[in-house]
Amino acid sequence: MNTQVLPMVLSTFKEKLNFNCQEIGEVAGISTFQVDFSDWNTVLSDKNPCIWVKAENFHGDFYYLSEQLRDIVREKSWQNEPILVVVDVNATELKKILPHDLPTFVVMDMADQVRINQASSPTAETLDVILSQITRSRLAPYEKHKPVVGAQFLRRKREINKSLNNPKENYLITGIRRVGKTS
User: Fold this and answer.
1) Can you give the pTM of this predicted structure?
2) Which pLDDT value is given to residue 178?
3) What is the distance, to the nearest Å, from the Cα of residue 28 to the centroid of all Cα atoms in its chain?
């Protein structure tokens, strides 16, 4: 039986959360994956890019590694995607070096992987790690530059029906900036 080798955090996603994690190849000896985060209704997709830097692939220079990661992103055309970078060493310095705008890198080092693996809620712990590196509004799945239509409306039917069925009620819509209140 052929068993896929995964980093600790992807094994946790697969075994505890039933997420699909698919290896898609190597670039310069570094493994790349796609992870299905579609259940979360965030900007993370059903084929979200993930790069795994094994301890033996890290040679002690985070600046060099950051350039390798940027090269992988360019080669795979992931410039407009949030990229999960799983590193099997302590990577606090890498978290400071990599950009959190486009492309958006989210680094999960070994300490993060252990915390997620041991958490009673791996989802909550993973979101805490992600939100420590990018803003909640950037994680929101909403179109920010034009009104949304069709399938881009997420979970709105219940709210619309409630307001239509109670026309004499007043409603206040609140939320952080750029999360779809107007739409």
Assistant:
1) 0.78
2) 65
3) 23
